[in-house]
């Protein structure tokens, strides 16, 4: 059995944003989803570096869409989370839930 993928916080955020966006996951929408859900502004370079790394690890796949006039004839690069990526983010989230179980954070309700 291969060792599980250890994900950093930002990698988890990116994977979850792609899963939320489903078929509409490309750079601009991923950044907007992260901003909307976390309040975090993500630099395009940081996002694409992470997406490339996740693809190298086999956690996401990408495909090129059709060129569009709105983008000056450039195509969008769409992303999808692979089965391995789903498993990796699920394991990471389960670990966080176990760590939070029974824990009362001072000044925070329903952590």
Strand order of the largest sheet: 1-2
CATH topology: Arc Repressor Mutant, subunit A
Averaging pLDDT over every residue, what do you get? Answer: 91
Q: Uncertain runs with pLDDT below 50, 5 residues or more?
A: none
Tally the beta strands: 2
Structural category? alpha+beta
First-to-last CA distance: 34 Å
CATH class: Mainly Alpha
**What fraction strand?**
5-15%
Per CATH, the superfamily is Winged helix-like DNA-binding domain superfamily/Winged helix DNA-binding domain
Q: What is the overall shape?
A: globular
Helix content: 40-55%
Instruction: State the oligomer.
Output: single chain
Provide the succession of SSEs: HHHEEH
What integer value in Å does the Rg equal?
16 Å
Number of domains: 1
């Amino acid at each position: 059995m291969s060792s599980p993928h250890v994900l950093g916080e930002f990698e988890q955020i990116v994977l979850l944003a792609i899963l939320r966006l489903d078929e509409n996951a490309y750079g601009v929408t991923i950044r907007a989803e992260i901003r909307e859900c976390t309040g975090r502004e993500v630099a395009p370079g940081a996002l694409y570096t992470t997406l490339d790394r996740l693809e190298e690890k086999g956690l996401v796949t990408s495909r090129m869409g059709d060129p569009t006039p709105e983008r000056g004839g450039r195509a969008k690069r769409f992303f999808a989370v692979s089965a391995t990526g789903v498993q990796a983010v699920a394991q990471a989230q389960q670990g966080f839930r176990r760590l939070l179980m029974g824990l009362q954070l001072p000044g925070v309700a329903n952590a």
